[in-house]
Amino acid sequence: MTTGISTGDVESAARLVSFGMRPKQLPSRDVVYGDLVRRYGEDRAFKQLTHAVAAGLGLMVLEVNLQAGAVLAATDESVFEIKMDSYARQSKIRERRETEKVLHGLVHLATAALGYPRPDDLANDTYIGRVSVEQVDAMVREACRILDERAAEAEANNDPLADAPELEQAWRAYARRPAAAATKDGRLASDTTRGMVARALRFLADQGFLVQVSGEQGGTYRTTPRYQVQVRELAADAAFDDLLELNVVSVANGGGTLRATASDTL
């Protein structure tokens, strides 16, 4: 029995998926990749086949377009899933305790919120955000200050935050660490918060989500269409909402920055 699907079709769908697994590969730089992306958008059967090939590999297709290329996400228990322990090894995290993992998760949430501080930014495919090491660190520290005030108020009212979200469980450890300290060769010490942020942003750059544009403010990066697709998925996460609701993000000169007052709105 024939299904109308040729071996060549399967090979092409698999090739499109393989392009998506190369973070820095873009359709604009590869004729074959570009042709496959266009076919995905025009041929419904090929689109379904691509999704089926990806699913068989434990992957989910988030988006396919000429700007971002094929953006994939690993499903639970997929061999391609980047677990926190793997991230710890890639980011050279010395301590892999649970608190350390949560802190790095907080850094990634802050980076996403600063890169796309408004819903309109995520909806606009032409929007390019900018983030820096100093900016992300300052945002997390401001979030820690607000959480500290919230916890103190709750304790004063005999209403401890027993069911606090992850953000409120991690702020103490982050706030205790120094922001910056130089090593003998002038680099940021790895156990400082800015050293932690710098590793996180370099990791995102290696994954094709950010591109470094300068060394200013500890390292300044621009966002990519690939990252925008990923943050759209992240925006559904409760922890992301918790961070935005702290009101520490605003927009200035096209990028996220710290709010001057808590009365501003996103």
Describe this structure in words.
This protein is an alpha+beta fold and 266 residues long. It is 51% helix and 12% strand. It has helices at 7-20, 31-42, 44-56, 84-91, 98-115, 119-123, 133-156, 166-176, 193-206, 225-234, 238-244; strands spanning 59-65, 69-74, 130-132, 210-214, 220-223, 249-252, 255-258. It has a three-stranded antiparallel β-sheet. The protein has a two-stranded antiparallel sheet with strand order 1-2. It has a two-stranded antiparallel sheet with strand order 6-7. Helix 1 crosses helix 3 and helix 5 packs across helix 8. The protein starts with 6 loop residues before the first helix and ends in an 8-residue tail after the last strand.
What labels describe this entry?
266 residues; alpha+beta; three-stranded antiparallel sheet; 11 helices; 12% strand
- Share of helical residues: 40-55%
Stretches with pLDDT under 50, minimum 5 residues: 251-266
Order of helices and strands: HHHEEHHHEHHHEEHHEE
The number of helical elements comes to: 11
Across the major sheet, the strand order is: 3-5-4
* C-alpha geometry: elongated
The major beta sheet can be summarized as: 3 strands, antiparallel
| Quaternary state of the chains | single chain
